Amino acid sequence: MSGENKKRRYHTPPGRMLKGIQVRLDPTPRQMGLLASHAGAARFVYNMAYSHIISQLHGLVRVNGDGKADWSMPALRRWWNEWKHELAPWWAENSKEAYTSGLQALSDAFSNYFKSRNGQRKGERVGWPRRKTKHHSIPKFTYTTGSFGLIDGDMCALRLPRIGRVHCFENLHKLVQPADKILALSVRQKHGKWYATLRVETDQPKPVSTLHGSIGIDLNCGDNILTTSDGLVVANPKYYQKTARKLARAQHCLARKKPGSKRRERQVRKVSRLQEKIACQRSNLRHKITHMLATTYKHIGIEDLNVKGMTRRPQPKENPDNPNHYLPNNAKAKSGLNKSILDVGFGEIRRQLEYKCHTSGAILHVIDRWYPSSKTCSGCGMVKTKLSLNQRTFICDSCGLILPRDLNAAININHIGSTPMLNARGETHETGSLTPVSEPVPSKHPTVYREGNAYRATRIRCKTRSHPSKNKTPGVLVSSQQKQTN
Ligand SMILES: [Zn+2]
């Protein structure tokens, strides 16, 4: 097999970084048609080139050179330029960038598959590329060359070749600085709305100078999203559960609509709107939490959670007395737990902390996933052999410390911060305990959590939680420290 693409990685100059800026577009009905046409062209050429490569692999088409199937970008581009008049006589209606992005997607898909199979690509195993269908693929295309981008003197608009000036909902001249270099512009449709994403090379932001102290974060999925070592508790608004009934009803309604009908189309939009609502609410809260953490603390400790393993379905339990019959395995309860774990979005919180720490100058310490943060006593270091999930209070048998379970775990994560110490770029940074860097934890809490002392945590809520209908303003997060000073 050939077609191994050379790494087309962009090398950012020192002191600069790449940034993505997403804005919602406000196209006119005519422009909507053109956008859909471009996205359709990208999909068409992807599918055509896919068939071409499959025929090469099956030996149905003569391949030049060494006789191996070739999915490299130059080969695909050559093939398309030779056949475009025959396959798509209408090709000139769309920008050539639409076809290029379709071919690029296919070339990447094949090269990722083979790299993943040969162990040259990290991460989860990549599957065999599949054709794109009109109704089950995301309409998108990318401009990398040509006169796309901002328009001088026009604050809220983008220039898209072949489509023209497209109005957008945000002031781009505030988001993109004059010294920034726009490398690419991708357009995609999400929940029936069109978005443009600019890939921008920009100056590294200056580190936040007010960072101080260290914090450990214990992620939860029940009534709270997270607990920090200095007593901050973020309540879980359970966005998915709140809309779940409505969503289920809408999806049930959708299942009864005739395929291809107008009513089905309308119902698809309704379901999509509900899903968009949940996604936006989740994303909003996560951004607020991670921004507050990354711009307040110098050292942040989090656990390296195996979310995929945690949300796995339980194994079926076969009845030993009655083969081919199964015993209850608590699948329903596990499925509920999985949903709430995924609703919080542990992985996304970690991803956002990584890049936000990188820009703010904070150091993120990822604690080994096997470290028993919940079972260890934060007072004397004694490790319990067993601690069931429903035991929400940690009681130490050796020193008598009584603490809420999550707070105890968060304090431990703050204390340990050692194995392995990774910063936001995945490099090992420092060794040793985190605590000497900041104030010692007990001094922040004059009420040392011994028996008899009440646990005082500041519970922050999104305002939308208490008044979902009345309050339209987004909730503001207040850290416990800020509250104390107020
Ligand atoms: Zn103890």
Automatic annotation (TrEMBL):
Segments forming domain Cas12f1-like TNB: 346-413
Keywords: DNA recombination, DNA-binding, Metal-binding, Transposition, Zinc
One GO biological process term: DNA recombination
Stretches the record annotates as Disordered: 310-332, 428-447, 463-486
Domain called Probable transposase IS891/IS1136/IS1341: residue spans: 198-312
GO MF: DNA binding; metal ion binding
Residue span, Transposase putative helix-turn-helix domain: 17-49
InterPro entries: Cas12f1-like_TNB, RNA-guided_DNA_endo/Transpos, Transposase, Transposase_put_HTH
Secretion signal span: none
Name the record gives this protein: Transposase
Provenance organism: Bifidobacterium hapali
